[in-house]
Amino acid sequence: MLRVAFVNMPFADWNRPSFALSQLAALLGRDFDGRVEGKVCYLNQDIAEHFGATTYESISVTHDHVDTGLGDWLFRQIAFPDAPDNTEEYFRRFYRGEHWAEFRRRILALRASLPALCERLIDRYRLAEADLVGFSSMFAQHVPSIALARLLKRRRPEVLIAFGGANCEAPMGAVIAEHVDVVDYVFSGPALDTFPGFLEHVLDGAPERADAIPGVVTRRNCHDGRFRGAIGSDHDIDDLLLPEYGSFLAALEAHPGLRETGTSKPMLFFETSRGCWWGQRSHCTFCGLNGQSMVYRNMDPKLAIEQFNWLFGFAPEYTSLFCTDNVMPRSYPKEVFPHLEPPEGGSIYYEVKLPLSRQDLGRMSAAGVTVVQPGIEALASSTLKLMAKGTTAFHNLQFLKNCDEFGIDPDWNLLIGFPREEESVYERYTHDLPLLTHLPPPVGVFMVRFDRFSPYFKRRAEFGLDLHPMDFYGLTYPFDADALDELAYFFADHNLGRYMQNALTWHERLRELVAAWRAAWAGDGPRPELRLIGGGPAGPVVRDSRSGVPVEHPVDEQTAELLRRLASPARPDQLAPAWPGGEADLAGRIALLKSRGLLFEENGRLLSLVLTEGGDQAAPEPPAAEPGDRRLLPVLTGAREDRR
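Below the sequence we write its predicted structure tokens.
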């Protein structure tokens, strides 16, 4: 029997399984008739326990250390023992100053403990006894995986080492095959087809024959363009593979301290689609997800229902489910969610594309969808147009208002620093953000970054961008500049354009406003409110506590009706012909509502910010345009963007 060990290294989140490795383990158990034994080893949990959950989460979960590459740099000396120690150089670039002194001391102590810890983990999981050790690599897992692979090869040179995952898609994976001698096989792109094909050759005693499989890269074929730039074939999404989660759950049980001291809650992944149906038609300019394949495919609804019902069986202990999808299939609110009966306390996290109707949100909520990533990213229609989002600020605000009605938590960021984003956008944010504190706040304010595979990266010359790998790559990998250009996923523009200067100027002020917004939602006290209450003896009132001091604004029935009408955006001249009091009366009421900060205005259109009892009954604004509409295309006369 061929012994395969799949390894999930830091800095993968300790509270979530590796979906890729869990699928591969399930596939081996199903398709290899006892010829292959596969297990998933969650070394990331062991190292999280060693670091302490708080420190580990700060590296793996938060945005604090993404741009410094800290997780990879910590393992540099194990992965590349012949490279000179560059601690002083690294800390001259990152974490400078006295206020980082204690953090530097703590990080260096942990770094010094890693070689012995990794050796102990090799023994604990008996990794040197495996015939094949496979690593899944995403974000800051790359160098930790190389480090453990090197220690394994030192112990037992004949063990086969395979790498796969998002960090290995062409051309990134070819750099590893070419420059890292301890890695024997790199799987570029999807591996549910290529990995079993490779295993058949291993079982036949001729693993080198896998060099002929597109999507498998080795030192022998990495200079051949047919393989250097290839990705594996896509496995049928309707071949339902229920992932092997037993190893993950056992690891959680073996590390109870993580749940006791960490802030993250254990959750299980599910997959119902691949690619992005919007991106297939109109690729958002800053998005680097999906690698080379944006083609959208979603699971048959009946199979999705089967998968959800299987996952519900992990309740009551594990009730949080998290999608691997980039976007929820559009038919699921009608074809899947009405057929689900989630367990008590069940929570499903989905990424969605706006706009979403109230009816769809209602079905989602009833099925246990409690958290969504809606891709809001901006509250200015001009910026959303630069992104090719196909939405407007009105769509985003309507959605945030509807989240209150259906008890759905939107997980969103406010991104700034897009090419050609005008400074007036930030000036307007300083006026608008304080008016929105009754709506769910963003996680934070972040500078946009350039990702490999995004339109900004692919068309860099068209946008006037001078893109180079972010600084931490050169401080982590002992490779030449050409290799780093092919290896890196995150890039920075070395042109100091006006758009960048504007974003840097306003970033701290916007960060303060969002921090105050988030603080108002923190704790157990009442959250800020802006709501129309009707039917009382004194007539309708707008209850407003956004300032921290509750006040009530009496309104008459006509003004209350105006607020309801403005649940969908409209211009005053659109409302005036049918307004019973005439144009002057309408103008006076609008002026009063503006003076109280109850309306959002953009390009002459108005939207009520006030929540109404029973939710906004007006239909959502229709989509801004179809992807083919030229209005959605970004301006292509230079500038740049920056995003995670």
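The radius of gyration is 26 Å.
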